[in-house]
Every structure is written in structure tokens, then in C-alpha cells.
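Technical annex B. To support the medicinal chemistry partners, we prepared a structural model of the target in complex with Double cubane cluster, based solely on the information shown next.
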Amino acid sequence: MESKYRPMWEKLALNLEAHDGLLNVLGNVYQDIYLGQKNRPEGMKYFDFVMSEVHGLRIQELLDAQQQGRKIIGSFCVFVPEELVLAVDGVMVGLCAGADVATEKAEEFLPRNTCALIKGFFGFALADVCPYLATVDLVVGENTCDGKKKAYEICRRENIIENLYIMDMPQMKSEAGLALFRSEYVKFAKELEKLTGKTITPASLQRGIQVVNNKRQALQRLAALRSADPAPISGLDALLINQVSFYDDPIRFTSAVNQVCDEIENRIQAGIGVFPKDRRRIILSGCPMAVPNWKVPMVVESSSAVIVGEESCVGERGFRSQVDESGRTLDQMLEHITQRYFQIDCAVFTPNPSRLEHIKSMTARTKADGVIHYNIQFCSPYQIESGWVEKELESVKIPVLRIDTDYSMDDVEQIRTRVEAFIERISDRELSSST
Ligand code: BJ8
């Protein structure tokens, strides 16, 4: 594949042939799923551009930042606080884990019944096709679910990821859990200072907090605008914006999201939607969808429904709470950061009641007709919670469809059949309640 970035990828020791194949597939899928959509906001052009340069210009920018002495930190989870990374003038990026790559190789280290996200990151690492992994100075692995914990352990033992830093995580939202969480953030801050040779000061941390709060505020603004009917933006595009939030420069990204929001506000005032009014409105809830995991949203939105919110880490779970900005000392700020991240209601916590409450309140706010619970196959924490989500929501007359799937496209027609039947069920209900 001809590309001006080829020398850069060569220097990063990527497997060029496999990387070409990956970019080809990604380009085709993007063309079909994203560029084929009608009536998109103009502002989505920025995000199309970011995606077209996700292995090109963005990597070049990271390498330029390194040249200027900045460190790049990679992560797989929203529990890794970007505020601390920014406070040492670092750059944080999400690492590739949203596609099946080198699955057979990954299964030499992991059982077959490991979730696709974990196998995905192994595959990207083993096949040398992730330019982010090849660029980062530190990878943060967090002890969240059992699969990730053990996968990071294998990465260390087998030297699959060299510069791996492990962050421990509590399992319960108790005082003891909070104390562990706080001490892990203090340790991480020290590790960042050691890596960068920079000291975190109240001013640098305050700036980090403000930058990330602004980013989350823009995403919250976008989420709120999706309550409008007709839907002013597709769920696919909103998901893409959320996905890009893990790769892009946070200040530039915030400005691009706010521009889309300005445009969407005008659309709402003019009654312009991306789909006709009264389409069935769906919330997606469950496991995170990393790039290029667009299968389920694509099926839903090509089946006469629209996604109006994501209860996911690549969605509201990741951005709905803010860090209190009133802290003046380092201790206060670190405490506020700890408090904010401790609220994230990932299913790895036991018990985890606030997640159910949040799904219910999201459904009311977005005027959703139903919830599709999305589970990556073999992800026990979300699979177990999906039963409770279904029971609780159905008891308040919100229909729920549970989908358990992986990254392959083999089951796409089967999912389509189930989604269409679900939309029909919602429509029949609406009809019988209005007569
Ligand atoms: S905060 S959801 S990003 S851990 S899908 S690897 S849970 S077996 S990704 Fe997650 Fe952080 Fe929680 Fe969010 Fe394990 Fe499940 Fe796989 Fe998962």
C-alpha cells in the first residue's frame, strides 16, 4: 500500500504487510458504514478526517511530541486518569483492541473463551500492527476484570508488552476500596513523575483537570442534544465521536465536539433530523465498543431505529461525572480525582447498583423506547449484570434485548433478525398503548 507514512511505520517496526491488510479492511468498512450515511452534520468531516489519519498524522503528532520531550501513555480503560498524565505534560491514548487480529496467535497465550477485547489487544501486540503500542512510553494495565488481570500477567511473563505498568483496582465501593484506589492513583502519579522527570504541581494538575473536564463537558452537551426528536445525529456518528475522544488531542477534540453541538442546536431548532421523526429510539448498554467495533450500531440503525445514547465506557459511563475543580492543594485535587473515578459504575465492581439507576434515568432523559444490552461474548461481569438490567427495566415497562456477540461478522444476519423483531415488539407495544 502506497502511503507517505510508510517510512514512519517501518521505523516503528510494524509488520507492513499485515498492517496494510488491516488498513484496507478498516477503510472499506468505514466507507460502507460511515460514509454511506445520509444527512450527517457537516462537523462530522473533522472526525472522518481524524479516522482517515488515525494510523498516520496522529502517530506523527505523537512522535513529534516525543521529540519535544513529552511522554506518551497508552491505556485500555477509563479508570486511568488522563488528568495526571496531562499534569506531567504527557499525552494519553487509547490502545487498539476493537478488532480480531491474529486471533490464532493470541489463542496460543489465552484460552479460546476469552473476550474479544482482550484477544484483540493481544492480537494487535503480537502481530505488530498497532502503531500506538509501538509508540507509547508506558502502557497502563488495570486490574479490573479477571480476564484483563491475567492477560496483563501473561504480557509481563512473556514480554509481550515491555513497558507495562500495572495499576491495582478495588472490587468493592467501600472505604477500604476507596483507600486502595487513592493509593494506586498516588503511586501512578509518582510513576509518571519518574518517567517524565517532571513534578506535578497544583498549577499543572489544575490545568489537567480543566482540560479533561472541558472534554467531558462537550461530550455531555452532545449526549443531552440527542434527546431531540427527530434525532439530530446518528448513534453511529455519536459513537465515533466518543471513540475518537480516546485518540485525539483533548483540546482540539473538545473544540470539534462543541462545533458539532452548535450545528446540532441549529438543526434541532430547524426540526432537521438525521432520520425521520418518530423512529424507534434505542439505548445501547453494556461493554465498551472500541474502533472499529461498529457491528451492532450498524445493524440497529439500518433496521429503522436510532441509537440515542450509549451506557458504556465509550459513552456516558466514561464521561458523565466531573472532577470537582475547587481543590487548591495537590492533596485536595488528587482526592477529587479519586472521588470522580471511583463513581464509574463498571460491572467489575460488586455490588454495582448505580449502573441500573443510570440506565433507567438515561432511558427517561433520551425518551428511549427500548434498551439493547450489548455483551462481548465471555465477558462475565456484563453478562451477569445483563439479567438484572433486563428484569429491572422490563418491570418498569422498558423492553430489553440482550445481545451476546464477538467481533466477527458471522452472526450479523442473526443479530439483524433479532433486532428487527425487537423493534417490531416495541412498535406493537406503542400501538396497543395508544389505542
Ligand atoms: S471501566 S468496562 S473499560 S474494565 S469486555 S476486558 S470487562 S471481559 S473492557 Fe472495561 Fe474499564 Fe470496566 Fe470500562 Fe473484561 Fe468484559 Fe472483556 Fe472488558
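Notes passed to the chemistry partners:
The two ends are 59 Å apart (CA to CA).
The mean pLDDT is 96.
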